[in-house]
Design goal:
about 325 residues, alpha+beta, D-amino Acid Aminotransferase, Chain A, domain 1, D-amino Acid Aminotransferase, Chain A, domain 2, 2 domains, nine-stranded mixed β-sheet, eight-stranded antiparallel β-sheet, 17 strands, about 25% helix, about 25% strand, binds 4'-deoxy-4'-aminopyridoxal-5'-phosphate
């Protein structure tokens, strides 16, 4: 049975329900995170990736939306481990913490409202095709500006902008949208940051181009520098640079490192997964699955030896 953290305790997911008048449901007044737990089959372990960094970002998002998150980073990490253990999945998972305006009240505002925190866990495989690469289009929807809804905060209401772009892309036969800023620079995907490979250099938009400062983005920048000696330039990117880049890939907790093989019906590079993208992907997957001990500080094992699913059943059954 799946479990959620709801109203300060772990309960069956089926019992975690909110009322129809809840403020966040009507006005998008909530902040969230998406955290992956990656299943390592040899060790029968789920490694939660960069949990502390996700919760630091959640605290920052809450400041923007005047949300009170009554747990420290350490408490949130502990709660997450406890919930994942209770769920006992033996596959890749996605953890969704949400801080929301929980008052049952009508009226657009951020003040004079109660807040609450909830979290649930779902099994989660690949979000985009990481093996073959994907096709993208530049969206006719512009990325929302910092003075409208700040993209650096992971605000639920902001995702209407992403949803418009994603659905337009998919209905037009593409896999993902790349949004431009109001002044026409490349910003990001609907739920991913974007990188171009130009020669032996990575290029990615800066924070001021209305991107979410992705944790996967940061991971890739560090892995490229430390493991491959490849520097990343953070600068404005013109739309037409998308058409002349040697390689392109998207990064995100859900998307991992997803190669982009076509943009606006033009082939990117050779039209196959690029060499540098492929190498980065391999490095990244080893790190997130806990196979590269050098980056130990980035992952939190969810199961203790005793609680490892299948530890007493020969690995055939789920716990919980
Ligand atoms: N941009 C947007 C709009 C996103 O929703 C996400 C996913 N959280 C990202 C970028 C990538 O961020 P991260 O690598 O931290 O998941």
């Amino acid at each position: 049975m799946p479990y959620a953290f709801f109203h300060k305790q772990i309960v069956p997911l089926s019992q975690a329900k909110i009322g129809v008048v809840t403020h966040a449901l009507h006005y998008g007044t909530a902040c969230f995170e998406g955290i992956r737990g990656n299943w390592n089959a040899e060790e029968r372990q789920i490694y939660l990736f960069r949990v502390k960094d996700h919760y630091e970002r959640l605290h920052r998002s809450c400041r923007v939306l005047k949300l009170n998150l009554p747990h420290t980073i350490e408490e949130l990490e502990r709660l997450t481990v406890e919930l994942v253990e209770r769920n006992g999945y033996q596959e890749d998972i996605y953890i969704r913490p949400l801080v929301y305006k929980s008052s049952e009240a009508i009226g657009v505002r951020l003040h004079d409202l109660e807040d609450d925190f909830l979290m649930f866990v779902i099994p989660f495989g690949n979000y985009l095709d990481v093996e073959r690469g994907i096709s993208c289009c530049t969206s006719s929807w512009r990325r929302i500006d910092d003075n409208m809804i700040p993209a650096r905060a992971k605000i639920t209401g902001l995702y209407v902008n992403s949803a418009l772009a994603k659905t337009e892309a998919v209905e037009n036969g593409f896999d993902e949208a790349i949004m431009l800023t109001h002044d026409g620079h490349v910003s990001e995907g609907s739920g991913e940051n974007i990188f171009l490979v130009m020669g032996r250099k990575l290029v990615t938009p800066p924070a001021c181009d209305n991107i979410l400062l992705g944790i996967t983005r940061d991971t890739v920048i560090k892995l490229a520098a430390k493991e491959m000696g490849i520097e990343t330039e953070e600068r404005h990117i013109d739309r037409s640079e998308l058409y002349i880049a040697d390689e392109c890939f998207l990064t995100g907790t859900a998307a991992h490192v997803t190669p982009v093989t076509g943009i606006d019906r033009r082939q990117v590079g050779s039209g196959q997964i690029g060499e540098i993208t492929g190498q980065l992907q391999k490095l990244y997957f080893d790190v997130v699955r806990g196979k590269n001990r050098k980056y130990r500080e980035w992952y939190t094992p969810a199961y203790t030896v005793a609680s490892r699913p299948g530890a007493t059943t020969g690995g055939k059954e789920h716990r919980g």
